[in-house]
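Recap from last week: sequence in, structure out.
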Amino acid sequence: MGSRDAPSIQAAVPSVDRVLRLTAVQSLIETHGRRVATEAVRAVLDDLRRRLSVEGEAARPLTTQEAIADRVRETIEARSAPSLGAVFNLTGTVLHTNLGRAVLPPEAIAAVAAAAGAPCNLEYDLDAGRRGERDGHVEDLLVRLSGAEAACAVNNNAAAVLVTLNTLALRKEVAVSRGELIEIGGSFRMPDIMARAGCRLREVGATNRTHAKDYTAAVGPRTALFMKVHTSNYTVEGFSAAVPVGELAALARDHGVALVVDLGSGTLIDLARYGLAHEPTVAETLAQGADLVTFSCDKLLGGPQAGVIAGRADLVRRIRRNPMKRAMRCDKMTIAALAQVLRLHGDPDRLAERLPTLRHLSRPAEEIEAQARRLAPALAGCLAEKATIAVAPCQSQIGSGALPVERLPSAALVIRPATGKRGSGAALKRIARALRGLPVPVIGRIHDGACVLDLRCLEDEAAFADQLVHLRPA
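Predicted structure tokens:
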């Protein structure tokens, strides 16, 4: 194309006003508003001018009214689509931090919708007709389930630890075993949270062995707390020793200091009942003498993101009076969801059926394998000549730092590119990208030259199978 032809081609681009007057675009204005439509039209026309300058006559079909209106609609739809949406978690990690951790049960979802859609008595005492306490909606439930004297909730367990330390040990010392100075996801470290809380960390013992005498040697006039931190995302094995909660609680009482136990993931039930490894429960820890326990709600508890502080009533009252507590408080939707999840825990006989997290964790491998064999032919048909599909045993993990060495026998669909060794990496990436591009994105994991889809968390089998027709690797 000669440069003298460029102006005539560019003249094929209509004005913004002309496009806005098109019937199809008028309909978009009615639905989305004039400002949204105008911004989309300008973006489409700018892109059209660019393509005409590069492609010339080859891009002329894009200048028709129908083509422009379609592009405007597609642009608005893409910009209007929420960035946060459902996915199929087939990674094999049940409580996947990047995928939102615990899935809420229907009862909790309904409670969230009810609280969000109308005014509610979040901080209003209906009996007394005056201001109430938002923690009251969950405190009685937590007390009954854990045996604590009192409890309150904040927005996550990190906040629970932070406000507890700031309240009880500001400008004082907290003794912690060197083997429990954890770092969790996002470079969150216990020493850093202590510094932010305004207290001084007093390290005791060695990385692999800490004894009661180490805590005794650390006690001084500035000692406020002994703290025990559950090493939720790693284990120390071999030549190792730690002071049990009961022994440490007695030692704390002897020295006139409180014992705070950070349980991390935390659980209100004995997981061994459901075929999982035993994890210290909140009730057990308090019964052993801990003064306060902190734990997460969106991990083994199977609830919304929140953190709980439970234990001695006098200490919980002090924490509630800390201005920092207000900055970390839960909103009405979190409170509503947490209350419903706690109510489900009151019926442990049916909990594995009603709580998605526990249902996923306790799902039998044989059931998962049968599901994989049902789905394999449909997936193979969609990827014919591009990949081979096999059903293979695999190991799931709990995730989010819960029971880090525990593995759950599972089954997976294993997708291997049909290309030779050369270029298989690129083909594998295309398949993974195509899975993520489905109407409900499918998130698996890449392992040993294959895309592995662990089906442990797949409950809506029909929805997964129905959308496979859209699977088109480039």
